What we know:
Elements: E1 3-8, H1 15-28, E2 32-38, E3 41-42, E4 46-47, H2 52-61, E5 66-70, H3 72-75, H4 79-93, E6 96-103, H5 108-115, H6 119-134, H7 139-150, H8 163-175, E7 186-191, H9 209-217, H10 222-228, H11 231-238, H12 249-261, H13 265-268, H14 278-288, H15 292-299, H16 306-318, H17 322-329, E8 337-342, H18 348-356, E9 361-362, H19 365-368, H20 373-392, E10 407-408
Parallel strand pairs: 1-2, 1-6, 2-5, 6-7, 8-9, 8-10
Antiparallel strand pairs: 3-4, 5-8
Amino acid sequence: MDCCGIIAEYNPFHNGHLYHIEQTRRITGKKRIIAVMSGGFVQRGEPALFDKLRRAEWALKGGAAMVIELPAIFALSSAEQFARGGVKILAATGLCDSISFGSECRDLSALNTLAKINGEEKQQLDLLIMQSLSKGLSYPAAFKAAVSLAYPDCAMLLDKPNALLGIEYIRACHSLSPDGRTPVLSPFLVERKASEHTDSEILGSIPSASAVRRNIMSTFDEALMSKCLPKHVFDDICEGKIRLASVSDDALFKVLAYKVLATPLSRVSEYAEVSEGLENVIIEAVKKAHSMAELTGLIKTKRYSYAKIRRCLMSVLLDIDKQLQSDAYSLPSAPYIRVLGVRRDSTDLLSSLAKSAAAPVITSAKDAAQLDGTALKLHNLDVLSSDLQSLLYLGNGASNEFSRRFLLV
Length: 409
């Protein structure tokens, strides 16, 4: 197989992503990259800054051979299920035998050590994690505390923002293995250069996506942006070819507040990630808050990160309940493979995918109409996510999922 997979959000596609694709080719020797990318909503628990087809186009122009959508149920999940969802899709294509991820941590062997913990060791680590969670720590903090006790030599790795996600990619590759020994995808690490994932300021030509978003939404310093965005992305933004997601948290808050107040308390408790009486906290917070920022601040505790709270609120907004989440997570393979676009020099991948895929391939409304059961529910959720992002954030009408031509770049 001549393809390596990448799981990403490209929100937006910047020089760091370009570097990742180029280095993945160099390190793995693979000529073509298949990217699995979040759609209308991202793992931070908010709508993406740009619509998925525009971001897919940027990725294709930036060197990806094919872009596949990561279903919203996984895009709005914890690091574990975000990684498992993406790995399932890449494995189901039948075109990839490896996965590449970026991390500030350069020690792949140490990440492998933590990812492969199983048996009694895993039971002991899980016990330590539960003890930390019971003290009110968030999961990332509890995981780090547990590792510090059980594997002190590896604990410093978790100071890096992307280390936990890297561990989950590796863990997913091994846990989804049919024979329990050979990973479904061989993991490769590309060391992040310059800015770290969480840096809020632009430092050099390879920034963090957070810093780029901050600049785009505020001053949009053209001189600065021209140095850290690929030319095709920079030109699109400057020439006004796209609508920025600037209409806005105010609209999102009002729609979410209505949804919460119009929903019975018992139903709110059924939504994904809502537990331990959090439904009461959410309802009271909605009654007091005047903005999304204020709402998440009222709900915030030491145990729940802002990202987890936002994902929880988006589950309420999008009607993602615990049953649907459980059904999605328990699927042995990908529910479907929604192809957003391919490069012109890689169109042969479509015919190869049709032969090798272990899940339904979707490129048109006709393909989507063949889905049923959980897969159909998840696809409808993807459509709803794109529609809401378009209506609330892009200032457009509903996205009309298949009304635009298939991306061929």
